[in-house]
Write a structure and sequence with these properties.
The chain is an alpha+beta fold. It is built from 14 helices and 17 strands. It has a single domain, classed as 4-Layer Sandwich (Chorismate synthase, AroC fold). The structure holds ligand EPS.
Length: about 400
């Protein structure tokens, strides 16, 4: 099983993730991770911080000569802005005298509840860790995990469906087209008209000193039938995906497949009917040669399939072989240039909340973070089923299963 923890404050020296359970023999390079770190940084509506940072990872353990060796992988991302925050964020008690305190909690942020919980009189102790900057670590972890999934032809894409009430209005795009269009748009939006309106909405919000939220969608292709299980509540894959997405800063709701729209339709209108087509037999399987990657693809070209995917690829907590589709809603960022009412925790006076530098809208970035956290859940379900200590061992287990499914 893959597990990881992250550490680091938004304006601290660096962010660190320690990742355990990545099998040996996976090709991994810092540049593979940097690509996703850069994708997390773009997005129309982001603030000044993203102009300061050029997030780059340093792998400091677990990889030798370009391959994982089975020991914990440590990923470190330096915060460039740290130079300006050296004293404010110093670990030394001497700097407390020159530091400033934040005493007006922002509605919608962890500030007040966190300060009371941890007995802090300075909101900075809360916001530095509650900040979405931590998600750079999760994207780095996710990038490693995506390399693992790609070994088995499992791919992850995301796109933005809605920002500030403007929703995309395009039907019948292939998954490939969704991926291509999302990457070409700085709002990660596949619909040009909606994108223009979203942009205007973000500009207006910025002018008003306000912020906007929205909805993104993560799609996983190539996952085989049978990941996750109905047998125990905490092993249901949809539940695990929901938890992972909900753990992203500012996420307030998650849907799988049709999601909340199920409430508006009857059973006969929503359940994905089952069809069958003989799987294409692979020559290598017949001849007993070690199968190659193409075999995974062949396995999905035939067998049981659906013409619709309202279930979002998961039934009873188990993948059914269709693409996995999960959506999440992000609330508007709580740091507002024109602040909402708050109370000073020292004087108990009613005053505007404290204002920190922030983004107007970070929904496109949240989509990239969504890719990472969902990828981690899929990889874990995959390892549960096909687990081994090296890529070769997992591949053998996986191939045996695919051959079995093809003959089912
Ligand atoms: C973020 C870094 C932060 C914010 C934002 C996301 O940088 P700073 O606080 O220095 O401007 O831009 O953080 C928040 C949304 C938040 O609530 O703190 C990042 O790297 O994604």
């Amino acid at each position: 099983m893959i597990r990881y923890i992250t550490a680091g404050e938004s304006h601290g020296m660096s962010l660190t993730a320690v990742l355990e359970g990545i099998p040996a023999g996976l090709n991994i390079a810092e540049k593979d991770i940097d690509i996703d770190l850069a994708r997390r940084q773009v997005g129309y509506g982001r603030g000044q911080r993203m102009k300061i940072e050029r997030d780059r990872v340093k792998i400091t353990s677990g990889v030798r000569w370009g391959k994982t060796i089975g020991s914990p992988v440590t990923l470190v991302i330096q915060n460039k802005d740290w130079e300006k925050w050296k004293e404010e964020m110093s670990t030394s008690p001497q700097c407390e005298a020159v530091g400033t305190r934040l005493t007006r909690p922002r509605p919608g942020h962890a500030d007040l509840a966190g300060a009371i919980k941890y007995n802090h009189r300075d909101m900075r102790n809360i916001l530095e860790r509650a900040s979405a900057r931590e998600t750079a670590c999760r994207v780095a972890v996710g990038a490693v995990v995506k390399c693992f999934l790609r070994e088995f032809c499992i791919d992850v894409i995301s796109h933005v469906r809605e920002i500030g009430g403007v929703t995309i209005d395009v039907d019948n795009l292939s998954l490939e087209e969704i991926g291509v269009r999302a990457e070409a748009s700085d709002l990660r939006c596949v619909d040009g008209d909606a994108e223009r309106k979203m942009r205007t909405g973000i500009d207006d919000a910025k002018t008003r000193g306000d912020s906007l939220g929205g909805v993104f969608e993560v799609i996983i292709t190539g996952a085989p039938i049978g990941l996750g299980t109905y047998a125990q509540w905490d092993r249901k894959l949809d539940g695990r995906i929901a938890q992972a997405l909900m753990s992203i800063q500012a996420i307030k709701g998650v849907e799988i497949g049709l999601g909340f729209e199920y409430a508006m339709r009857s059973g006969s209108q929503v359940h994905d009917e089952i069809y069958y087509q003989s799987p294409v037999k692979d020559q290598k399987e017949v001849s007993g040669e070690p199968p190659e990657k193409e075999v995974h693809l062949l396995a999905r070209k035939g067998g049981f399939y659906r013409k619709t995917n309202n279930a979002g690829g998961i039934e009873g907590g188990i993948t059914n072989g269709e693409p996995i589709v999960a959506r999440a809603v992000m609330k508007p960022i709580p740091t507002l240039p024109i602040p909402l009412k708050s109370v000073d925790i020292d004087t108990k006076e009613s005053l505007g909340a404290s204002v920190e530098r922030s983004d107007t809208c970070a929904v496109p970035a949240a989509g990239v973070i969504g890719e990472a956290v969902v990828a981690i859940e899929i990889a874990n379900a995959f390892l549960e089923k096909f687990g081994g200590d090296s890529i070769e061992e997992i591949n053998r287990n996986y191939q045996a299963y695919i051959n079995y499914v093809n003959n089912y």
